[in-house]
Amino acid sequence: MTKRQASKGRQANSPVPRFLTVGRTARVLGVSPSTLRQWENIGLITPVRSQGHFRLYSPEMLEALKRIKYLRDVKQLRVSGIKNVLEKDLRTKPGSRPQSTAELGAKLRRLRKACKLSLIEASRKAHISAGFLSAVELSQANASIATLQRLAAAYDTTVLALYDLPAKSSRIVRPNKRRVLQTETGVAMELLSTGTKMLQSMLFRLPPGTGSDGAYSHAGEEFIYMLHGTLELWLDELERCVLHQGDSFWFESSRGHRWFNPCEKEEALLLWVNTPITF
Fold first, then answer.
1. Which stretches of 140-220 are assigned E, i.e. beta strand?
2. Residue 159 belongs to a domain
């Protein structure tokens, strides 16, 4: 066997990477990297970021990009038309869809007004700038999990209350019936229980390089069990904890905590339980 044949054999047996770089994604689609960045800037896609802040595209996102390219090139749709079709796809897709930025911004604005707070008053309570809060409400900026938690606390509610949850509680939640809350960075939180009074259980999926994007705190206690991957968690910026598959960990929610997946290619999957329901 020649070196070239051996090389081809190794390439054929090599596993397909879970995430693709912007260059490889552009080659697969037959578009330029600048086109992908343009689609991101206008809100059609939101790639995850590696620890080095490089754009990464999952197989699921690659399929979405193929859909966007088809709508642009074949159907000759403009940006607004593409967005409408993608929204319709999400509505008709089995299972729950992520909360859109527009829906979330509108709900945050309604909550602020219900609390009779001005932009400046609300931003001071949430420890963010008034300009950023205005941008979030107008769907011109994306709020991180940490920002959502601080805003929820300022409005005397919880993060989960910002989303449309099932009206009826159920003791059994089937996998295909889980409500999925997803941030713009790709962090997905799947609700494992609904209608509970004292505890909140979720399945967290963290793409590489994603996390809370800031620290937050609230009342209660939290428990984490690592199912897969790695999680780096900081408490009060003093205590650093790195959790791996099989590790379990608890901490007081009143301590400022931030967390992220430090891996460049591997998703983190973890069971996260809060008590009482204050997240």
1. 180-182, 188-191, 200-206
2. no
pLDDT, mean over the chain: 81
Question: How many Å apart are CA 51 and CA 261, to the nearest integer?
Answer: 8
User: 120-142: string of b/e by CB count within 10 Å (b at 16+)?
Assistant: eebbebbebeeeebbebbeeebb
Given a contact cutoff of 8 angstroms between Cβ atoms, the answer to whether 96 and 166 are in contact is no
Q: Are residues 13 and 66 in the same domain?
A: yes
CATH of the domain at 26: 1.10.1660.10
Give the whole-angstrom CA distance, residue 238 versus residue 276: 25
Q: 273 with 200: CB under 8 angstroms?
A: yes
227: CB partners within 8 A, 6+ apart: 245, 269, 270, 271
Please state which of the ranges 1-15, 65-79, 148-162, 260-274 shows the lowest mean pLDDT. 1-15
Q: Which two tokens stand for residue 201?
A: 């259980």
Q: Which residues pair with 233 in a beta bridge?
A: 241, 259
- DSSP result, 75-142: S---HHHHHHHHHHHHHHSSS--PPPHHHHHHHHHHHHHHTT--HHHHHHHHTS-HHHHHHHHTTSSP
